[in-house]
Automatic annotation (TrEMBL), chains A, B:
Keywords for the protein's UniProt record, in alphabetical order: Amino-acid biosynthesis, Aminotransferase, Cytoplasm, Pyridoxal phosphate, Pyridoxine biosynthesis, Serine biosynthesis, Transferase
Binding site for pyridoxal 5'-phosphate: 109, 159, 183, 206, 248-249
All copies of domain Aminotransferase class V, residue ranges: 13-364
Alphabetical GO biological process terms: L-serine biosynthetic process; pyridoxine biosynthetic process
Native organism: Variovorax guangxiensis
Transmembrane intervals: none
Pfam families documented for this protein: Aminotran_5
Record function comment: Catalyzes the reversible conversion of 3-phosphohydroxypyruvate to phosphoserine and of 3-hydroxy-2-oxo-4-phosphonooxybutanoate to phosphohydroxythreonine.
InterPro entries tied to this protein: Aminotrans_V_dom, Aminotrans_V_PyrdxlP_BS, Pser_aminoTfrase, PyrdxlP-dep_Trfase, PyrdxlP-dep_Trfase_major, PyrdxlP-dep_Trfase_small
Protein name: Phosphoserine aminotransferase
Length: 376, 376
């Protein structure tokens, strides 16, 4: 395997959908502290999770995440394991009480969540965009919400399909008193969250927050304590909350890396904006640059309704798909990595998470323009 | 926090029970490859788990673990999440078929396993050493094994209590046809495993194999495919096996670090021995040095029956416990970290896993001798 380099000799730009690119400053810090975290004589991986050193790392990470996402004090932050697919079972085990739950189907991930929940509750479909191949979000005014739903599940950004809620649904305004559950794995910390509309949010860390193996759960206090008897203790939100995420040994390295990422995000500025607000400005600019270029070309196409396109995951297709391999090979040569689309969708996908700078999207657009010029 | 150093200026010796010390060479390699794994232009944390780079890391780690532990071809190796406490539910969800299971209670961990399994099956106690405060293993000849048990659970090394099976029970010889399940979290790869006696082995990686957040499961093929309907898909052994541990995004960094550790273990030699056999020779020498010193002193005591003392976790007590704090403070000064005993047992505990060199135990014994001399 040869060294991949951008023309300027920098690290390549990595468009992986997850696990995904991390801020270079975070990786450098982790490398520097690998054998001795702040004079402790230990790698973070070698610390007892119950010792004061790791305790301080975990407490700081939680506080920084709370500040970063403006999480109100009546929500618990839980550091767990199992990822989004694990949460597809863990959420109904904790929240459904064995009764009904409503699912809004908008793509691959919400479809999986709905299917898995059927093991534990009466999992209903309140709305679906399957009839338009997940290219347009169903209007909340049309959702068939159940009177007796224990919760309503939404995937607020579909990583595979590239479709995103530009604002979270207001269930109360729709006549529902059920808590909203959002799977925000693939756009957490890319934009603000209106917590007044949310009961529980979960996400794997490996897209926007840290390495794979860490799952973030943010849950409103009143939703704790209602788990089914068959819920494993290690995945019972109340047990995890009562033990400050240390009922079982937590993924300590993941928490440390996420904590470094939270710090990095808090320090980012863009004009008058800081933290997530700054990232949101950058993400708007990055997405607009890429979508505008695609829309202005007959050589490339994105099929998602412009009103609900994802700022994080941009699937696109070459008009002539016989050029896909050449496109990917040339991209690798140009230091643009992991652009192949998900196998269920095909084509290309550029994931442009927080750690992707505008310069990376500019480099991608420049490559796409040149590829079009030389192949059109 | 001040820099902890051994007199020779080396890293301190870390006796944490887990997460625990890792081989320094492994940490150095991880630091060096942090920003660019083998010319890929990516950190391992930034790689898609479905890409060829991480695929090669995962395949190699599995092959190396199979070689290291001499795992027969009719066993699957699964890389999972949730740790030992997660497995306490995941094992009965997959193996019990909702029927009976037998538990041998030998300390804190087997007690927890038995309690959690009661959610899913008729979890029975086949034997217990609670009457002698978990200081002596119950003789297998006395175990009350059920005719209809779906499996028999044993914790082959109790991390908290410091008690270890010197050989695994031969259930067939005891008249049982049930598969043996072993929780080998805290002594995996410290000694060989007689797989002819085992149906399933599980362990958190964070003691002898890698960082927290990775769970190793080794399961005989015929035990796959019998999960209860309520088993979450992400924790269904057959689903995980059918997807080569990539049903959900695996803890990629943990697999990478464990893989580096497997390589390190395979390379170790001790006289004519290599790999685990070499580690076993070293571990015998380390444990003997420490137990012999403790037994020869009236100042320190270990309460476990000599026939079943753990080679990995050595709990010990000062005759005068009012000196505990002074002992721990002096140890830290001497570069000997994390010696405080588990809160449920008290006193001290030296965990001397594979990554602890003989020199570390020698330094501990020298410190203990000096502390005794100056305080007796």
């Amino acid at each position: 395997m040869t060294q991949q380099q951008t023309p300027a000799g920098k690290r390549p730009y990595n468009f992986s959908a997850g696990p995904a690119a991390m801020p270079e400053a975070v990786l450098q810090r982790a490398a520097a502290e690998m054998l001795d975290w702040q004079g402790s004589g230990m790698s973070v991986m070698e610390m007892s999770h119950r010792g004061k050193e790791f305790g301080s790392i975990c407490t700081q990470a939680e506080a920084d995440l709370r500040a970063l996402l403006a999480i109100p004090s009546n929500f618990h932050i839980l550091f767990m394991q199992g990822g989004g697919l694990g949460e597809n079972a863990i959420v109904p085990l904790n929240l459904s009480r064995g009764k009904a739950a409503d699912f809004v189907i908008t793509g691959s991930w919400s479809t999986k969540s709905h299917k898995e929940a059927q093991r534990y509750c009466d999992a209903r479909v309140a709305a679906s965009n399957a009839d338009n191949q997940h290219t347009k979000l169903p209007d909340p005014a049309t959702w068939q919400l159940s009177k007796d739903a224990s919760y309503v599940h939404v995937c607020s950004n579909e990583t595979i399909n590239g479709i995103e809620f530009q604002q979270l649904p207001d269930l109360a305004a729709l006549g529902s008193s059920a808590p909203l559950v959002i799977d925000f794995s693939s756009h957490v910390a890319s934009r603000s969250v209106d917590w007044s509309r949310v009961g529980l949010a979960f996400g794997g860390a490996q897209k926007n927050l840290g390495p794979a193996g860490l799952t973030i759960v943010v849950v409103r206090d009143d939703l704790l304590g209602h788990a089914l008897e068959i819920c494993p203790s290690a995945f019972n939100y109340k047990t995890v909350a009562d033990n400050q995420s240390m009922y079982n040994t937590p993924p300590t390295w993941g928490i440390y890396m996420a904590g470094l990422t939270f710090k990095w995000l808090l320090e980012q500025t863009e004009g008058e904006y800081t933290g997530v607000a700054a990232m949101e400005q950058r993400n708007i600019a990055k997405a607009q640059l890429l979508y505008d270029f695609i829309d202005g070309s007959d050589f490339y196409a994105n099929r998602i309704d412009p009103g609900c396109r994802s700022r994080m995951n941009v699937p696109f297709f070459l008009a002539d798909e016989s050029r896909n391999e050449a496109f990917l090979a040339g991209a690798r040569e140009a230091g643009l990595l992991q652009l192949k689309g998900h196998k269920s969708v095909g084509g290309m996908r550029a994931s442009i998470y927080n750690a992707m700078p505008l310069a990376g999207v500019q480099a991608l657009v420049a490559y796409m323009r040149e590829f079009e010029r030389s192949h059109a």
